[in-house]
Design brief:
With 320 residues, the protein is an alpha/beta fold. The chain has a single domain (37-318), classed as Alpha-Beta Barrel (TIM Barrel). The chain has helices at 2-8, 55-69, 79-83, 94-97, 108-116, 121-129, 141-146, 157-167, 183-190, 207-213, 219-222, 233-247, 265-274, 285-293, 295-315, and strands at residues 14-16, 32-34, 37-39, 43-45, 72-74, 102-107, 134-139, 171-176, 196-198, 255-258, 279-283, 316-318. The strands form 3 sheets. Strands 4-5-6-7-8-9-10-11 form an 8-stranded parallel beta barrel, surrounded by 6 helices. Strand 10 (255-258), helix 13 (265-274) and strand 11 form a beta-alpha-beta unit. Helix 9 crosses helix 12 and helix 13 (265-274) crosses helix 15. The protein is globular, with a radius of gyration of 20 Å. The protein starts with a helix and ends with a strand.
Amino acid sequence: MAFESQLAQNDGRFFYEPLFAPSPSEVQLAETTIGSKTMRAPIWISSMTGGAEKAGLINQNLAKVAREYGLGMGLGSCRPVIEEKESAKDFQIRHLIGDQPLYANLGIAQIEEYIEQGLSNRMVELVKSLEADGLIIHVNPLQEWFQPEGDQFKNPPIDTIKRTIDLLDTSIMVKEVGQGFGPKSIETLLQLPLEAFDFGSFGGTNFAVLENHRRNDIRKEEWKPATHIGHTAEEMSDCVNKYLEHNNDKIKTKHIIVSGGIKNFMDGYYYTQKINTSAIYAQASGFLKYALLGEQDLFEYVDAQIEGLKMCQQYLQIRK
């Protein structure tokens, strides 16, 4: 019983294999090509700061660390750039991030509106004005449902995603926000020519919960059970692998980004190894925390992540 109790405390996702590790100086993390640009580590800085008070400072610090360590970055919701031109300066960070992947970001409700009004050129202009490499479409119908002032979609999100791909001659990513995707949605997205599909899985920030807390009517209590709807990164990874096993010839999406519930580098390493196609992982809260503390703290945080990944690569094999 004592041995079983001790074993239960171990991280059962990995085999620890200390006999075969090369010298630390020989360990190199795999590079990932996003569009025409190269990431030197499998870490994506998740979209955040849309409309935040300190958005400019946060984005600048994040851009600097992305350049230093060879990471990719998604901007927070860029709707303010379109609707409030003075906000653009908070998002214009190409000069700081250098030649690293940088993606603009819009919610699917706004994209649907622009398309319906014949204003798809706004998305083109947004990507161009920010010198971004493409556009992230964030899909958040449950969040919108719980918002007292939330948008209601006129069309299924998949139709809007497909129309955006057809209308825009730019690289596209699709990201769920807070709840993840079920098997049917996963299979459909994998067949689209996306640069990346971001899980946004259940386990990170639950925006349905946050929005429900803002309500002041009877729905706040009655709708509460629905805030726990979602799919974890583990479940979604299994769905991807199962589909890949039998339908590899149908896959058009180039990369998977695993976000939502990624607490540390070991979580990230686990999922990048578990998924049987090109995969990187993303974090938001950790980056946001240290970006607010300052540039030095942020650099130390990312350095610890990179060294941790190298340790994993040296000694750990995942249990598939």
